[in-house]
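User: Okay, second chain of the day. Same drill as before: sequence in, C-alpha cells out.
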Amino acid sequence: MPIIQASDVQSHVGKEVGVSDWREITQAGVNAFADVTGDHQFIHVDPEKAKLTPIGGTIAHGFYTLSLLAGMADGVTLRLDTLKMGLNYGLDRVRFIAPVKVGARIRARFTLASVDRRNDGAYQFTYTVAVEIEGEDKPALAAQWVFMQYV
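Assistant: Same drill. C-alpha cells below.
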C-alpha cells in the first residue's frame, strides 16, 4: 500500500494509484457466496443448467465481484502516513457491465477521483474503480468507492 503524507495527497488526484493482482473466480468461491447470501440462482451454482444459457456456464454474482474490491484494494490504494483507522464509507454509481465467468481472472484498477478533508479530521477518498476481466474488452464492473481515513 503506497504510504503518503497528507500534504501530498492532492497531487495524486486524477491519477491511477494502483492495480491489484489477478484473482481467479472459482466455482467453490461462487458457491460459498451463494450459501452466505442465500442467492442460489442456477446461473451461479448449477454448471450443467448454466451451460444451456447464452453465457454458456456459471458466472459470479455481481455482488460477489463487488465484495472482492476490499481485498483487491489492499496493498494498492493510498494510505496516509498518520492513519489510525480506515472505514468503507460506501459506493456510488455501481454498474455491473459484463458477466464474470467461473474460471476467469479479474483485477481492479484504482484511480483517485478526489480527496476531501472533513470537519471531524478524517479524509474522504473517492476512487474510480474498474474491475477488469482478463482477455475481455468490457470491464466486469465500474464504481465510485468512498473510503474514510482517520488520522
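The chain has a mean pLDDT of 96.

User: Thanks, on to the next one.
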